[in-house]
Amino acid sequence: MAEEEMNWKFTGKNGEFRLENADNNNRLYFPLTNEAGMMSAISPLLNGDIKTGQNTFAMEPVSIDNLHNNRSARNFWLLIDDQTLWSAAGNSAKQISQKYSEAEAESTKVEAGFLWHKIIRINQEYNLKSEITNFVPANNDKVELMQVKITNKGEQARKITPTAAIPIYGRSADNLRDHRHVTSLLHRTKTIENGVTVSPTLSFDERGHKKNKAAYAVVGADQSGKKPIGFYPVLEDFIGRGGFLDWPEAAAKKMDNYLEAGAEIDGYESIGALRFEDINLEPGEEKTYVLAVVIEEENDDLIADAAKKYCSREKFENYLQENKDFWKKKLDKLQFDSADNKFDQWMRWVNLQPILRRIYGCSFLPHHDYGRGGRGWRDLWQDCLALLIMEPEGVRETLLNNFAGVRIDGTNATIIGSKPGEFIADRNNISRVWMDHGAWPFLTTKLYLDQSGDLDFLLEKQSYFKDSHTAFGNQIDDNWNREDGNKLLDQENNIYQGSILEHLLVQHLTLFFNVGDNNNFRLEGADWNDGLDMAEENGESVTFTALYASNLLEMAEILEGLKSKNKVETIEIAQELKILLDSLTESVNYDSVAAKHELLNKYFDSYQTKVSGTKIKVEADSLIKDLKRKADWIIKHLRKNEWLENEEGYKWFNGYYDNDGQKLEGDHPLGVRMTLTGQVFPIMGNVASDSQVEEIIKTADNYLKDDQVGGYRLNTNFNEVLMNMGRAYGFAYGHKENGAMFSHMAVMYSNALYKRGYAEAGNEVISSIYKQSINYQESKIYPGIPEYINNRGEGLYHYLTGSASWLLLTMVTQVYGVRGDLGDLVLDPKLMAEDFDQNSEAKITTVFADRDLEISYHNPEALNYKDYEIKEILLDDQEIDFVKKDNSVMIKRNILTDKTDVEKIKLDIKLK
Fold it and tell me: Does residue 29 belong to any structural domain of this protein?
């Protein structure tokens, strides 16, 4: 097969793609979903699962290896001329066994787009073609639709007996190994006019035995809405005692013991097996069937109405078009138009990924088989980065709600409810502190403030989270009463509320004093790298110490903006918090670890179960001075104590201390040790000087760059299991957090390089990931960015990765240079000469100041970054004023907001 045919390729202008023989990859999957929370995964053989949450799976839950070893897939059987059984989905024992034999007589291809999936299969032996299209309607219904189109490609008529077969699991994922058979006894299975329904009586899971409210169904009809003629609702009856789901006796033997509508069968594993009437398919004739898999949770008669609403060819096509239009409109909010159209279309799939993670959380796709749904603390904030760029409406309220998860000790809730702003006290009384958690809310809030100019947001009031854990999880508050709820109370038993600014201060000031023996912030349970979880006593995260330093400086800058723009001279805070603002009272010697611990313990002792509720006012100038003092100390400390040079003359920052209090990085008898994370935040936060950045680039290129895995590895090979550092080093090297090309940190490395003006180096990072990801022969994934790329160059944990948000952020705010500065628009492009098309133009469509913007950069002299600057800006063909600073310019917000007479504002930027 030609190399071109072995890769997927885009077929249109909206991200649609085609892949020949996709079923030769048994680990390939694709997401189907809607914003109502219907979540599906589908493979080229129609394996995968369908669910709305951990406790409501319509199809059996799958992990990645289930895609090839689990027979419980969507299927559609054709008995041809009463003799030969053929799966239109390709999922029969015979077809799979013949796939790589000389007798292979089928060709396949997947066609897919936002968010629909089609598998086309042509069988040369029977001269039959099947086209099976699946999608989830873009409405509030929890339904997956499946259209099966059968075409006779031969010269003689075929007698066809069609049978749809979709197993109905109908319960919690917990029941895969916990009472699997017993929970089938709960099934109450019925046949209705168009299909099979299952309504379990109870739900068995960790919540206890509860009355079940969810129902499941498979319904269907032919192209004109004609009903099936009968049903096989019991799995064992359909497959037979000697059969299998990939060779069911009822379909193979054309058994006529199917049931009519109105039957009830209790206590068995269920299947939506629908027998349709025999047809004679003439040469060139086609026949279409439409199926719907339904999850009904609200007793809203969805099952009863599903067949009528969805199951005809006309209705299916209408809903499919609505679905395509819905996702196109959403993704059109952010578009890139450069010289590389393939990259621009690939980025549309990256644009989709943060939306998928908002819906799926970090679970519910085959690689993401951990957790019980929902998102973690870090995810709440990082996913909002993309939302601020693509869907800014409602983000303010989301951010405000999220701050309710902050504890007064600077840590945060780790169990997050399903409702906005809902945080749950730890059910298992297990304390886990990630020391990086306090940093992310500020990064996201700063982006919001820059995009919106809404500095009043900092003064909004929000509650704090409260449970039994306090003092960074080192103490248990025995006086906390669960019945009081999980909100912090004051001495009058009122829910205490502090400003958003106060929440941010709590998160950063407590960390500043929570240091290890080397005077860097303690690692605690882990930082961003969850695998660094075995250094809780003496470990330190130098790299996130650097991030907190830059946050403190930027917080001071925002306070200066609050003072100058909003005329805020004093800041109201809880009186207890003044302890941490030591320069306002009695300055602490920051070089003394003991002094820092003493002050932090004094703060912890100032409140117990409840806070006083008393507020004090501090001068904004004094607060700014205190924050800058702390940040400046960190920067000097890191530059002096954590900058390394090894025997080979390479230089970089040490990123961590292990549980023995020793530097993790540097020369070692087992090989040079270096982490990418340890370099990212010193670069991003201006801790590293320009000369140090240049040294880091050289060192990373030497020790971490590997073109075989798409760029920069997360770390070098430490060649041992580090029991004093974390479980990550128990993983095989080159996998996940131990030395894979981990997209999230690699993209953040790119972002940091761009921010510091090293655009060529930053571009190389993104280009490497992109080239590896689109090389299907190696990456083995559909378009988009994976969580990581392993030693074989394969992309894993696709779709649900925070790297997508950071890649969008980097492309918009750094590469195309479109960002805010406390509400005003900054244009600071860092495009390479090769990014401009044949018309010397590179264009971005995005949202800013509640306006759709189309920004076109014109580079007629084909200049490279740093060789050009912005000379002229036309707004809808009219020249406008701007403020220039270095290579960037600023446009006042009102110039955009005053433009109310057009749907999209067009800015033409001339570079010279």
Answer: yes
CA distance 828 to 870: 8
The number of angstroms, rounded, from the C-alpha of 362 to the middle of its chain's C-alpha atoms is 7
Cα 638 to Cα 540: distance, rounded to the nearest angstrom? 13
| Spatial contact of 794 and 778, defined as CB atoms under 8 Å apart | yes
Structural contact between residues 67 and 145, judged by C-beta atoms closer than 8 angstroms: no
Using CA atoms in the order 529, 530, 531, 533, what is the torsion angle rounded to 10 degrees?
120
Burial 231-262 (b: 16+ CB within 10 A, else e): bbbbbebbbbeebebbbbbbbbeeeeebbeee
The total of other beta-carbon atoms located within 10 Å of residue 648's CB is: 10
Q: Give pLDDT, residue 203.
A: 85
**Can you tell me the distance from the alpha carbon of 34 to that of 139, in angstroms, rounded to the nearest whole number?**
7
740 domain-assigned:
no
Structural domain harbouring 824: 816-911
Alpha carbon 673 to chain centroid distance? 30
Give the whole-angstrom CA distance, residue 142 versus residue 550: 44
CA distance linking residue 221 with residue 229, whole number of Å: 10
User: What's the confidence (pLDDT) of residue 429?
Assistant: 67
Res 206: pLDDT: 58
> Half-sphere exposure of residue 905, counting CA atoms within 13 Å on the CB side?
24
Q: Classify residue 331 by its DSSP letter.
A: H
Task: Measure the CA angle with vertex 262, ends 256 and 267; round to 5°.
Answer: 85
Q: Kindly report the backbone phi and psi dihedral angles of residue 547, in degrees, each rounded to the nearest multiple of 5, phi listed first.
A: -65, -45
What is the tally of structural domains in the chain?
2
Average pLDDT over the chain, rounded to whole? 94
Distance CA 4, CA 27 (A): 21
Listed residues 331, 363, 390: the one ending a domain = 331
With a CB cutoff of 8 Å and minimum separation 6, the contacts of 884 are 870, 890
Tokens of 904: 């999209």
**How many CB atoms neighbour CB 892 within 10 A?**
15
Contact 581, 542 (CB under 8 A): no
What are the tokens at 159? 């007698």
The residues with which 190 forms a beta bridge, in sequence order, are 197, 264
Residue 189 in any domain: the answer is yes
Tell me the helices (H) and strands (E) count for the chain, helix number first: 22, 48
For tokens 């044949």, what's the residue? 838
Q: Give me the pLDDT at residue 3, please.
A: 44
Give Dmax over CA atoms of the chain in angstroms: 95
Note every long-range contact of 178-187, with CB atoms under 8 Å and residues 24 or more positions apart, other chains counting.
178/204, 178/205, 179/204, 184/267, 184/268, 184/269, 184/270, 185/267, 186/212, 186/267, 187/266, 187/267, 187/268, 187/269, 187/270
Average pLDDT for runs of 10 along the chain of length 912: 67 94 94 96 97 95 93 96 96 84 80 98 95 98 98 96 97 88 93 96 76 95 96 97 93 95 96 97 97 90 94 97 97 97 97 94 90 82 90 92 96 85 75 93 97 97 95 90 89 96 98 98 96 96 98 98 95 97 93 98 94 97 98 98 98 98 97 98 97 98 96 97 96 96 97 97 98 97 97 96 95 98 97 97 96 97 95 93 90 93 92 94
Domain presence at residue 221: yes
Specify the pLDDT at position 484: 81
Return the pLDDT at 335.
97
Q: What is the pTM of this model?
A: 0.95
* CATH number, residue 215: 2.70.98.40
State which of 273, 308, 331 marks the end of a domain: 331
Cβ atoms of 712 and 680 closer than 8 Å: no
Give the Cα separation of 735 and 245 in Å (integer): 34
Residue of 700, 830, 701 lying closest to 756 (CA atoms): 830
